[in-house]
Design a protein that fits this description.
By secondary structure, chain A is an all-beta fold. Chain A is built from no helices and eleven strands. In chain A, the strands form two sheets. In chain A, strands 2, 4, 5, 9, 10 and 11 form a six-stranded mixed sheet that branches. In chain A, strands 1-3-8-7-6 form a five-stranded antiparallel sheet, with no helix packed on it. Chain A is globular. Chain A starts with a strand and ends with a strand. With about 110 residues, chain B is mainly β. Classes of the chains: A mainly beta (about 110), B mainly beta (about 110). Chains A and B meet through β4, β5 and β10 of A and β5 and β10 of B.
């Protein structure tokens, strides 16, 4: 069964304290892996798409990486405004299938 | 700027009542998705459409939920009759293709008492 697991469920950081969020997946072929950010009371906001192992994408303090079994979202020197829930989703390489979302990691950054 | 819109933003209703949620996808996006989000289950896919045709609605309770796209600018999700366990935030998302990034609306927070 296709599955996406994110860890940890919650992460508290001090401002400037770098860390990583993990997304491990089990799918029968990967077409793409997506990261989204969700703020309270809002819909998820697209961040990155990764397609193949070894690929990396960066945006401000965020960097997403991909291996054959997992993806990491690295947060460098986070700021309070980075506080949000980060969702990972995978698209299996099967015709007609849609995204499978993980349950997310809730990040809190305090100043 | 282009964004997905959803109405209503909040809905409180009594058990047994019909609920209709509406979504306007981003112009030019041919793929539309309906999700439900709860604390316990996270984000669950209910149904999705491509070029207004339903591709999969296996995530929906068939006896009470229905999803349609009357035209390219409107998607609807109906619950009849509603039950307290349907209380959740319902999101609509659209994209250029089934495997492309999705753009989410602000959601409809449904409370069924």
């Amino acid at each position: 069964e296709d599955q996406v697991t994110q860890s940890p469920e919650a992460l508290r950081l001090q401002e400037g304290e770098s860390s990583s969020l993990n997304c491990s997946y089990t799918v029968s072929g990967l077409r793409g892996l997506f990261w989204y950010r969700q703020d309270p009371g809002k819909g998820p906001e697209f961040l990155f798409t990764l397609y193949s192992a070894g690929e990396e994408k960066e945006k401000e303090r965020l960097k997403a990486t991909l291996t054959k079994k997992e993806s990491f979202l690295h947060i460098t020197a986070p700021k309070p405004e980075d506080s949000a829930t980060y969702l990972c989703a995978v698209h299996p390489n099967q015709a007609g299938t849609a995204l499978i979302f993980g349950k997310g990691t809730t990040l809190s950054v305090s100043s | 700027d282009a964004r997905v819109t959803q109405t209503p933003r909040h809905k409180v209703t009594e058990m047994g009542q019909e609920v209709t949620m509406r979504c306007q996808p981003i112009l030019g996006h041919n793929t539309v998705f309906w999700y439900r989000q709860t604390m316990m289950q996270g984000l669950e896919l209910l149904a999705y459409f491509r070029n207004r045709a339903p591709l999969d609605d296996s995530g929906m309770p068939k006896d009470r939920f229905s999803a349609e796209m009357p035209d390219a600018t409107l998607a609807t999700l109906k619950i009849q009759p509603s039950e307290p366990r349907d209380s959740a935030v319902y999101f609509c998302a659209s994209g250029l293709a089934l495997f492309a990034e999705q753009y989410f609306g602000p959601g409809t927070r449904l409370t069924v008492t």
